[in-house]
Every structure is written in C-alpha cells, then in structure tokens.
Amino acid sequence: MKTNFINFIFLLVYVVFTFGCNDIKDESEMPEYEGPILELSNIESFYSDSAIVRLKLVAPKQYEYENNDREFIDGIYLEFYEKDGSISSTLEANYCYHYGNEDRWRAFGNVIVKNMVNYEQLNTEELFWEPKKEKVYTDKFVRIETDGEIYTGEGMEAPQDFSYWRINNLRAVISLDE
Fold first, then answer.
1. Which residues 6+ apart lie within 8 Å of 36 measured at CB?
2. Domains of the chain and any CATH numbers
3. C-alpha span between 47 and 70 (Å, rounded)
4. Cα distance between residue 66 and residue 142, in whole Å
5. Can you give the pLDDT at residue 56?
C-alpha cells in the first residue's frame, strides 16, 4: 500500500509538471507593455525661463509613458505669466495629451483660453499648443468673445499668450452692444 501511495505521488508530480509547464510562454511571445510607467496625482508644476516663472500647470492626474508622452485624463489648467509675474493668459480643458518628442500639446473637451490682458475668451473643442513656436491653433469650431463682440468660425491661430488671433474661416460677428 505504501508503494502505491508513493507511485501515486510521483504520477501526480509528473502530471502537474507535464501539463502545467505547457502554459508557460516564452518572453518573446508576451505582448510589450504600452501603458503608463508613472502615475501622478494632484499635480502643481511651475516652469521657468531664466529664473522667471513662465507657466504653472495644475492637473488632478498625470500619466507618463516610456516614449516621453504625458496624458492628463482628468483635465488640465495652465497659467502663462508675463516677465513681471502677472498672468497673461490661462488655458483649461477636460483632457490633454503632451507628445513629448515633438513638444506638442493637444487639449480637447471644453477648451477655454482667457487673455487676462485684453479680456478675451476662446472656446473650442480642440486646441494644439507648440511651445517652441509659441503658438496655439485649431481647425475646429471656435467662439471668441471680446469686450464688445463675439466671433465664430472654423479654425484659429494665435500666439500662446493669445495677445492677438486670427480665425481662418470667419462665420459670424455679433455685436454685444445691440
């Protein structure tokens, strides 16, 4: 009886190793992980140029990827500063993606840009920002409200401080004085 029990144990071990090892895959067959390598919460970052704060970034959540991209899935808020420390403009959006190798940002979902100097506001669903070129642009519908008028159209280009702008395909100009 003792021999039967030992034979049973050997058979069980053989079956486990024989059938259990068939499911082990070679590492080369495993799909490469493409998800975030870092997750940050409650971000508040400042970017400076020559020891002067030029940008403040606030976001509830940020994902960083191996290819240097960053994703802000719960929205983003940016403040752009003048050399004297005053806020020149702000940008907020429901979602933002930073293409790290290109240094290009794509904000979408209720994008709002406010020029604090000229008291103008841009509303659109998608906006690109290229810091090296210091410009923002979109090919989507835009609504720009100034002190006395509302402009609507398709597509827009402006410097990143939103000090002036150009709508590519102007649809309407509405005077607020009427």
1. 63, 64, 65, 71
2. 28-175 (2.60.450.10)
3. 16
4. 34
5. 94
CA–CA distance, 56 with 33 (Å, rounded to integer): 31
The dihedral built from the CA positions of residue 78, 45, 75 and 138, taken in this order, carries a sign that is positive
What is the DSSP secondary structure assignment for residue 51, as one 8-state letter?
T
Q: Which residues of the chain have pLDDT under 50?
A: none
Residues β-bridged to residue 58: 44, 77
80, 124, 149, 176 from 145: Cα distances, Å: 19, 12, 6, 9
pTM of the prediction?
0.78
pLDDT at position 123, please? 97
| Residue 29 pLDDT | 78
User: Which sign does the torsion angle of CA 90, 80, 162, 118 carry?
Assistant: positive
Structure tokens at 129: 């920002």
